[in-house]
Structures are given as structure tokens and as C-alpha cells.
Amino acid sequence: MNYERYTKWEISPDSLEYRFISSGPIGDIPKIIQFQATSIPDMYNLSFGDICQDGSIDDLVVNNNRDRNKILATVAVAIYEFTRNYPEKTVFFSGSTPERTRLYRMAITLNYERLMTDFEILGVVRDMNAYLDVPFERGINYFGFLLKRKISKFEQ
Fold first, then answer.
1. Distance between CA 85 and CA 15 in Å, rounded?
2. Model pLDDT for residues 88-109, shown as the tens digit of each residue
3. What are the two backbone dihedrals, phi and then psi, of residue 97, each rounded to the nearest 5 degrees?
4. For residue 1, is pLDDT > 70?
5. CA-to-CA distance for 17 and 30, rounded, in angstroms?
6. What pTM was estimated for this model as a whole?
7. Are strands 90-93 and 43-51 parallel, antiparallel or unpaired?
8. What is the CA radius of gyration of the chain?
9. Distance between CA 92 and CA 130 in Å, rounded?
């Protein structure tokens, strides 16, 4: 994926946290991407948002800094970096709102061919009282998404 992205970032030694600055017409906004272990073995939740003054993460803020695509590309590169370091881990992500989840679905759809070469992509749907992971298909509204790095025969 050859999109403009933020290249100046701080990565934690364990590759679980990525910090960068969104720059745009409303100023510089500190951002953070985190990968957090879940109760499901080998599954990590991706969280992302603005870093608040108290150190918390605001994943609901809309700041209109006019760099949405650059931010999404930066998050994608963080996923590539995380799964390069932890190829056996699965990354789960979902938007903090239905609109953001739809935005993520659209980004996956636009880059599907490229992503499929590197990842197994699943959509998470809600079925009655359970969540099911199914192969990603265009045009379906998902609760969230799962990405698992494909390991090439050269990496085994």
C-alpha cells in the first residue's frame, strides 16, 4: 500500500505501542496505537486514538485535522510492524462507532488484493448471543475485523 503516512513515530521496545503526531490545519495532535492482549490466546486488540492530557486515549474524538487517510495508512503500517514481530498473533479491531467500523471496512475493501497477500482477513458478525468470525466479503456490515499474518514458506 503506497499511501502517504506518518513516518516519525515512537515504537515501544515490545512493539505494542506506537505514538505519532497528526499534523494539520488545527495543529499537532498526539496519537497512539496500542496492541493489547485479550483473554483469547494469541489475540490482540488494536486500540487507537488521541492521547489526552491525563494520558488516557480518546477513541471517540473527531478533530478534522484533514489527515484521515494518512492516519489510516499509519495504523496499517503499525499492524504490519506488529505482525512482523509477532506473526503468530491475530489482531482484532473495530471502530468506536458504527461509522468508524464502516470506514475500516471500506479501507480493507479498497486494499483487499494487497492485504490478502499478507493476511488472512476475517469479519466478525454478531449471531444471536455469539460473535462469529467469517471470511471477509465486500459490502457486509461487520462488528469488527481479524487479521492474521500469513507466514510465507521462506519465513517458516
1. 7
2. 999 999 999 999 999 999 999 9
3. -140, 160
4. no
5. 13
6. 0.91
7. parallel
8. 15
9. 16
Residue 121: name the closest of 98, 154, 139, 144 by CA: 144
For residue 87, report the phi and psi dihedrals to the nearest 5 degrees. -65, -20
Residue 26 has pLDDT above 60, yes or no: yes
SS3 39: coil
Mean of the per-residue pLDDT values of the chain: 93
> Considering only CA atoms, which of 37, 136, 135 is closest in space to residue 91?
37
Pairing relation of β-strands 130-135 and 90-93?
unpaired
Average pLDDT over residues 28-42: 96
Give the span between the Cα atoms of 121 and 108, in whole angstroms. 9
As a residue count, the chain comes to 156
Q: What is the 3-state secondary structure (H, E, C) of 61-128?
A: CCCCCCCHHHHHHHHHHHHHHHHHHCCCCEEEECCCCHHHHHHHHHHHHHCHHHHHHHEEEEEEEEEC
pLDDT of residue 85: 96
Per the listing, cell 480518546 goes with 58
Cell numbers given for 40 = 483469547
